[in-house]
């Protein structure tokens, strides 16, 4: 879909319609919109250009007459494959390349969210990151100011040894005992999943996970040619479901997010963790444990991670600084058996030749100086206030139309609507009111009852406005 971030200039003497025509011609001439590129609908274009729809229709008609665009009923308007006088030779069929790439595209709803997040006027009600005012900007700046020398070259394949040493020491606070040699530094936790998918898994194998799940919203495993299958964590023990599924399918691993689960916020208790680890050990089924939210407990520290209970190298443990420090640092890690870490380090060198040396330096100093412990407590205090405020707002505005549980940590409240709603209608109407949602359909394609509500990004004033408006909107749709 063509991206448009331009509007006609009403102060010019050039007619608006002519400006639109020249803008589209320029996009095509420069090769930004290649053959087959689809334009937004006429209604959407009128909205983006802030003009009457008739002006858009006339402009598109003239471009179609010139052979630049083609409009078909039911499929919209696209850049035409007709040769025209601005091109010296036919351009490559980039659309065919776009559709043939190995990476699966994001869902349309996720693409829409990614675009809308760039609009600073929108209230991001489901965003999974800390608000700018909660980020430790001053502390990180101070680390750079006191540096004698800052590493700017490539680091070794597994990442900075100094950072891996600090992580090894830090993870001991979670009862995880791994040496620096058993840790790989990654460019965020998503890259950790990409390396595992591409470096360890055979095409056609299956990954099991607790549904709904974050990994449903990022097609990293599907792009690697593997399948994902969700298990519902309801009345039946999830370990029983794993055993049943493995009798009939080639299962490669289980993806677990037991601590402040994304998107539900759920916290597995100690007994559940032990049962899962025992079952997977008996079945020789490896586990990926995604523990990005561990430091963000709000009421009491969580039980030890699965990796802390792992004595046989069954668990690949992934974490990140994105949630508790800053998403911009882009530093994560994988801890596991050394042979696996060696293989993944080799894969990473083929991918990006190592994470940012500057970011690794900041992360190492962040842990070594003890700033992390103080900053984490400050963040928890702020998140606790925000969570409690949102819980009160939900009680005030959603008591009769939804249900929810009090999260003990992390960023999210998993709001369940008592009646299902047409998700795309709700999403569009909310966005028109300046509210960006994360519907449950992102995490489970069949979900029309849930919304992921985040208390980590929007201000309390914004949350109050957005939740009040959202409740009113839901009631109007459900009538």
What keyword list fits this structure?
three-stranded antiparallel β-sheet, globular, 41% helix, seven-stranded mixed β-sheet, 479 residues, alpha/beta
List the helices and strands and how they pair.
Blueprint: H1 16-29, H2 42-49, H3 53-65, E1 69-72, E2 76-79, H4 94-100, H5 108-116, E3 123-124, H6 137-145, H7 161-171, E4 183-186, H8 189-200, E5 206-211, H9 220-223, E6 227-232, H10 238-246, E7 251-256, H11 270-282, E8 287-290, H12 306-309, E9 315-320, E10 332-335, H13 338-351, H14 357-368, H15 371-397, E11 402-403, E12 412-417, H16 423-432, E13 435-436, E14 450-454, H17 460-478
Description:
The chain is an alpha/beta fold and about 475 residues long. The chain has helices at about 15-30, 40-50, 55-65, 95-100, 110-115, 135-145, 160-170, 190-200, 220-225, 240-245, 270-280, 305-310, 340-350, 355-370, 370-395, 425-430, 460-479; strands at about 70, 75-80, 125, 185, 205-210, 225-230, 250-255, 285-290, 315-320, 330-335, 400-405, 410-415, 435, 450-455. A hairpin with a 3-residue loop joins strand 1 (about 70) and strand 2 (about 75-80). The two termini are about 35 Å apart.
